[in-house]
Amino acid sequence: MGGLISLKSFLDRFGHPSDGLLGFMVASYDIGCLLGAAAAFLWGDIAGRRRAIVYSCIVLMCGAALQTAAFWIPMYIVGRIIAGIGIGSVSVTVPIYVSECARPSWRGILVVSETTVVILGICLSNFTNFGFVYGRANLNGTEAQWRIPIGLQMIFPPLVFLMMPFTVESPRWLAARGRHSEVAQVLARLHGKGVTADSHEIRKEAELIIQTARHEAEIEGSWKESFTNGELQNLRRLILAGTTGFLHQVTGINVVIYYSQNIFRQVGLDDRLSYIMSCVGSVCFLVGSILPVFYIERIGRRKVMMLGASTCGICMGIIACTGAVSLYYPERASASSWAGAAFILVFEFSFGTGWNSMNWLYSSEIGSLRMRNKTAATQCLCHWAMNFLTVMVAPTGFATLGWRFYLVWMAITLAAIPFLYCCFPETAGRTLEQMDGFFRLYPQWNIRKVANAWVEEGAISGNNSASSHTKNEGEKFHRQEKV
């Protein structure tokens, strides 16, 4: 919402709501995202990946229309919640869809690209809002000044509708629904370059996917079984996915984004320049988010997450130090405030290079076929719940702890590094079916020595000899080759 909620025409329309109510009007979007993720958790596998994306976009458009046309606070809040439901649902489905359709060597690059487009949208919205708040003199004081930018979000869902006829359904979802005859045809289309459904490579890949779907169907017989650590280790996978959503938010990224303008004002910038600096921060975020495309498949997910946690934690510590210097050494307040503002930009860049894409990518890779939607939805539930909590808690935290509040985020982020190192297996270069094999062969939580161990494809379908061979080979802890 940027500076739109501070416009006189916006406040006049809604009767000058209190700060608390104004905050809830903004945060209600996160409640909708939470509900959307919950809906995807319960029913996301029914419609299929493509239709789920279309339905989510329709819901988003309805919510955007209500917000744009809102004349009362309840109408606006309902619109925010409905739009959030659409975003929460699509944020579950899209990374899964990309992961299930992509080759292992391209999976990370494509999911990172998808999340980078999200940051591009945030960047564009910041500059659009700035243009309408400060740039359109003929709109000043009119409701069009905030209704138009809110309504612009309805432009993009129709573009998705236009592109959907050119996409295919996820081959793994088709296998899970028993539509085995379509799997090879879809894989052939995804491979392209004249590959046919009858080729040896396609038939082998299709058979592996179908075999995995059948095997999981034999194992998973109830919801209770889906949340236990049986052969497929579903509970463990849910916890790992939820942890990525939690850690994504406790880096403090949304605290920085939401309150960066306050820090820039402390430097002495006016509202206009503070807004511009916030827009610059979103550009730093975008540039940082692009970079993982070039190294995500080379160095793997684990190192990127640990590096991201390290850099974000260090930046938070430095920002806290600048706040302390400003408080205890007033003669140095100007310099320390500028340093704090600079490290706000560095933090956003660092978060983009490390954590921005990792929770969406990792959670879409580690779930078993039948539980993949629920695994990704669990990550989204934790992500949006922590998003809401951090934004709501931040004002009290700043008022009570001041600069020490940044140390809380630093401590949690740095404390996560040993957990990431010990408990998170590497997913780069592995097929989704090989991840099933990994969790079967290594059910222990502490997997630091085997995080990169090679898993033979024979271990996936329950071939005892292959599984035994892989367990023995796992003692060598050799690095897998990239597909």
Automatic annotation (TrEMBL):
Segments of this protein annotated with the region Disordered: 464-483
Cleavable signal peptide: none
GO cellular component: membrane
Chain segments annotated as coiled-coil in the UniProt record: none
Compositional bias (Basic and acidic residues): 470-483
Bilayer disposition of the protein: Multi-pass membrane protein
A GO MF term: carbohydrate:proton symporter activity
Cited Pfam families: Sugar_tr
Alphabetical keyword list: Membrane, Sugar transport, Transmembrane, Transmembrane helix, Transport
Protein localization: Membrane
InterPro entries named in the record: MFS_dom, MFS_sugar_transport-like, MFS_Sugar_Transporters, MFS_trans_sf, Sugar/inositol_transpt, Sugar_transporter_CS
All residue ranges annotated as the Major facilitator superfamily (MFS) profile domain in the record: 1-428
Transmembrane segments: 20-43, 52-73, 79-98, 110-134, 146-168, 238-261, 273-295, 307-329, 335-355, 376-394, 406-424
Family assignment from sequence similarity: Belongs to the major facilitator superfamily. Sugar transporter (TC 2.A.1.1) family.
NCBIfam families in the record: SP
Name of the molecule in the record: Sugar transporter STL1
